Amino acid sequence: MNAYLADILSQPQALRLALQKTDLSTLTSLRAQLANGCFDRIVLTGMGASFYGMYPIWLRLAQSSQPPIWVDAAELIHHTPALIGERTLLWVVSQSGRSAEIIHLLQLLEERPPAGLIILTNEPDSPLGQYAQSMPNKVLLPLYAEPEMTPSTRTYMNTLAIGQLAAVGLDLTAKVSLSDCLADLQRSADGIERYLQDWQVVIRSIESTFDHAARTIPPSPPKIILLGRGPSLASALVGALCLQEAAKIPALAFQSGQFRHGPLEIASPDLTVWVFAGSQEAPIYRLNRKLWQDLRQMNLNAWLLQSSANEKGCLSLPDFSGIGLPLVEIVPVQLLCYSICKQMGIEPGDFRHIGKVTEKE
Predict the structure, then answer these.
(1) Residue 194 near residue 319 (C-beta atoms within 8 A)
(2) Where are the alpha helices (DSSP H) in 246-324?
(3) Do residues 171 and 272 both lie within one domain?
(4) Considering Cα of 84, then 89, then 94, then 97, what sign does the dihedral take?
(5) Is the pLDDT reported for residue 218 higher than 60?
(6) Which of 79, 115, 211, 341 has its CA 20 to 30 Å from the CA of residue 181?
(7) d(CA 47, CA 358)
(8) What is the span of the domain harbouring residue 264?
(9) Tell me, what's the pLDDT at 175?
(10) Which parts of the chain are beta strand (E)?
């Protein structure tokens, strides 16, 4: 079996393992310090899928009395290092813990040590993990995913899961409990597993979204835009990254509202748009659905990704609950990447110009 497909199919098991092993009691001290006003800001940083995966974390913390700052590591080290001060709680996510910007960030931290540190990484023995171990006021949260040689799958999903749980644990105004959120993620793992049991059938359903051009994905690279709001914006951003990295196509991602402010002008009959509907209980569902309907009325090949494909132009997601939404949304995009590669004669998940870890700035 292709390594990228194997990584995709192994995600439910990897997620369950991470949920079983993660110990969030280590956040108790930092939460108390937040409550006592010991930090004047929370800075969230990372690169690539790690950075995009922090968006649901940012959303959660932004509802609290201590709004966070979400800035990628390249901008942080080169343009906004002053965001890291003697009362900063710095939260870094890096799957490898050794990419170029992370190494540069560690050099910066020698000059500007934060007051507190949270690290999410899949390699606790990496330079980032070792730095965290030397910090007196830190929390190191491993991702507990098996090593990957292809674009991020298990590590990204576990980042979403552990990161959101940690955000709930830190949120002084949280209206949901950690136990409820843990149950949401476990139910979502079950939903993903059921969805992937018939992955060949799912791929045929996904390929049908390109029936405007051919009965299968065409031999020329398809044009794809992914749209999302709220937690689903992470799915759009990482989904486009997956399509660029794994399937080698110039996919785009936009916040759904932003798409109406100019980018809509690039719409054409050969463009496919996937709109992440979001939770059907959330107010933004109506906005996402209206956008999808407007695109369909413009004769665009627009698809709404939601819990059930009960009408024309809808593509079903794995079953999910609560904070499991962004975890399930990425799975159809991963399978789309695999399918496009097979259609284009590309080995799914192989790198051409980069490696698994980005070592140059």
Answers:
(1) yes
(2) 256-259, 284-297
(3) no
(4) positive
(5) no
(6) 115
(7) 10
(8) 188-344
(9) 83
(10) 41-46, 68-70, 88-93, 116-121, 138-142, 223-228, 252-255, 271-276, 301-306, 314-316
Rounded CA separation 33/157 (Å)? 29
Give yes or no for a contact between 160 and 298, defined as CB atoms under 8 angstroms apart: no
> CATH number for the domain including 235?
3.40.50.10490
Expressed in angstroms, the distance from the first to the final Cα of the chain is 34
Q: Is the pLDDT score of 66 beyond 80?
A: no
Q: In what order do the strands lie in the sheet containing 271-276? A: 252-255, 223-228, 271-276, 301-306, 314-316
pLDDT in tens, 346-358: 877 776 656 666 6
Contact 30, 139 (CB under 8 A): yes
How large a percentage of the chain has pLDDT more than 90? 73
Residue 283, pLDDT score:
87
The amino acid present at 147, given as its one-letter code, is P
Do 60 and 137 fall into the same domain? yes
Q: Which amino acid is it at 86?
A: E
- Distance (Å, whole) CA 139 – CA 119: 6
- Non-local CB neighbours of 106 within 8 Å, separated by 6+ positions: 127, 128, 131
Which DSSP category does 309 fall into?
-
- Other CB atoms closer than 10 Å to residue 242's CB: what's the count? 24
Q: Is the pLDDT of residue 216 over 50?
A: no
> Do 23 and 76 fall into the same domain?
yes
Q: Which residue has the tokens 């494909």?
A: 309
Burial class (CB in 10 A: 0-12, 13-18, 19+), 289: middle
